[in-house]
TrEMBL record:
Lineage start: Eukaryota, Viridiplantae, Streptophyta, Embryophyta, Tracheophyta
Pfam families (UniProt xref): LRR_14 (PF23598)
Signal peptide: none
Residues annotated as domain Disease resistance R13L4/SHOC-2-like LRR: 6-93
Gene3D superfamilies: Ribonuclease Inhibitor
This protein's name: Disease resistance R13L4/SHOC-2-like LRR domain-containing protein
Keywords of the record: Repeat
Length: 110
C-alpha cells in the first residue's frame, strides 16, 4: 500500500489500525488524528514512512504505538501528549531527529 486515504479519519469507532509491513507507505494523512476511539496503532516495518502527523498527540485514546523497524526521519514530541499511552515501541528505527526525552502526561512503562 502506497498511501492511506484521507477518509480514514471518518472511521470514528476504529479501535485498531495495523499498517505494519506497508513498505511503500510514505506518509499518513493528518485526518488519522481524528480517530478518537483508536487504541492501537501499528506501523512496524513501514520502511518508507518519513514522519507521523503533527497532531498525533490528539489521539487521546491511544494505548499502544508501535513504530519498530523503520526509517522515520522525525518522531514528534507531541507523542508525549498521548495521555493514555501504555506501550511505545520504537526499536530498530534508523532515527535522525528523535527527541531524547518525552514528557508523558501519565506514568507508564516503556
Amino acid at each position: 500500500m502506497g498511501r492511506v486515504h484521507e477518509s480514514i479519519g471518518d472511521l470514528n469507532k476504529l479501535v485498531c489500525l495495523n499498517l505494519g509491513d506497508c513498505g511503500s507507505l510514505k506518509n499518513i494523512p493528518d485526518s488519522i488524528c481524528r480517530l478518537s476511539s483508536l487504541e492501537k496503532l501499528v506501523l512496524r516495518s513501514c520502511w518508507s514512512l518519513e514522519e507521523l502527523p503533527e497532531e498525533i498527540g490528539r489521539l487521546t485514546s491511544l494505548k499502544v504505538l508501535q513504530l519498530s523497524q523503520g526509517y522515520m526521519q522525525r518522531l514528534l514530541e507531541s507523542v508525549g501528549l498521548l495521555t493514555n499511552l501504555q506501550e511505545l515501541e520504537i526499536s530498530n528505527c534508523a532515527d535522525e531527529d528523535h527527541p531524547r526525552h518525552f514528557r508523558f502526561a501519565s506514568p507508564a512503562t516503556f
